[in-house]
Design goal:
Bound molecules: zinc ion
Low-confidence stretches: none
Oligomer: single chain
Strand order of the largest sheet: 2-1-4-3
Helix content: 40-55%
Strand content: 15-25%
CATH architecture of the domain at 26-69: Single Sheet
Order of helices and strands: HEEEEHH
CATH topology of the domain at 26-69: Rubrerythrin, domain 2
CATH class of the domain at 26-69: Mainly Beta
Length: 133
């Protein structure tokens, strides 16, 4: 009899175990709400450490656990911007001066480039005129 049973079964493919007499560990559903109002429920084992946040199943944002008090958001120091750091080193009057200097230098440079371009164009015009003549 046992020969027949073994012949028809493939190793590793079928489990003969059933859930019938298995007792699952006690579990509880925990609800999470994301900022967009989606609700996500996650089953946790009763003795598990339940995390305060979970990823929203709908939008993927961080969802907060519903049945606990949320920790108060810590007072966040506003980030120091490059502008703030600049103002620690220089006054507005100094910055105006630096700006004027840089603009002057830039205009001089642009004037030089424009003059160079004009000279080039004039030279090319002279060449084509000589060719056509
Ligand atoms: Zn969501």
């Amino acid at each position: 009899m046992s020969d027949r049973v073994l012949r028809g079964s493939r190793l590793g493919s079928v489990s003969y175990e059933s859930d019938r007499h298995t007792e699952f560990a006690p579990r509880a559903l925990t609800a999470y709400d994301c900022a967009s109002g989606h609700q996500t429920t996650v089953p946790f084992a009763a003795e598990a450490d339940i995390p305060p946040t979970w990823e929203c199943r709908v939008c993927g944002a961080e969802a907060l656990r519903r049945d606990v008090e949320q920790p108060e958001a810590k007072a966040v120091k506003p980030a120091r911007t490059h502008w703030d750091m600049l103002l620690e080193r220089r006054t507005i009057a100094e910055l105006e001066e630096v700006l004027a200097e840089r603009l002057e230098a830039l205009h001089q440079q642009q004037g030089a480039v424009k003059a160079q371009l004009k000279a080039q164009q004039a030279a090319e015009r002279g060449k084509t005129r000589r060719k056509s003549a």
